[in-house]
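Quick one, tokens below. Sequence please?
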């Protein structure tokens, strides 16, 4: 479960029907949203999620106005076990599991993930996944329908 602070502006896409693994997409999006909240030093954090259906599948964009990342950090963030050592807004340090797991989940959905970031401006993550009613790498279960709905 993720609690979004009241002062955080969260912009979500319109309703969308996605044929993919619900569990994997939830894990990916929860991690990216959690990081966008935790690593944001602004009084009014802003997080935008965009979604587009393409001929091959789906493209997601998760952007924030947080603390951003240096080029050195960007080169390592998707490695399993990598931890930048940066304190979050709650004075905690990450454990190095999150973004490595996100990359693994995206790759299991036969997609890829990239990030753009500027220090003190924010970060934007782009990830894709293929549309496929059967995704055998995900415990042999047929694809799920995931409903992304704006929080009111």
């Amino acid at each position: 479960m993720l609690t979004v602070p009241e002062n955080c502006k969260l912009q979500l896409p319109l309703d969308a029907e996605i044929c993919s693994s619900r569990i994997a997409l939830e894990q990916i999006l929860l991690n990216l949203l959690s990081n966008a909240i935790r690593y944001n030093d602004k009084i009014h954090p802003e997080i935008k999620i965009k979604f587009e259906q393409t001929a091959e599948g789906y493209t997601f964009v998760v952007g924030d106005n947080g603390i951003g990342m240096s080029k050195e950090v960007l080169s390592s963030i998707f490695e399993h076990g990598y931890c930048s050592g940066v304190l979050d807004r709650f004075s905690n340090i990450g454990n190095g599991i999150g973004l490595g797991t996100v990359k693994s989940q995206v790759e299991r959905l036969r997609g890829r993930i990239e990030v753009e970031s500027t220090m003190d401006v924010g970060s934007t993550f782009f990830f894709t996944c293929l549309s496929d009613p059967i995704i055998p790498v995900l415990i042999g279960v047929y694809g799920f329908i995931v409903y992304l709905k704006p929080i009111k």
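The chain has three helices and seven strands. The first helix runs from residue 22 to 38.
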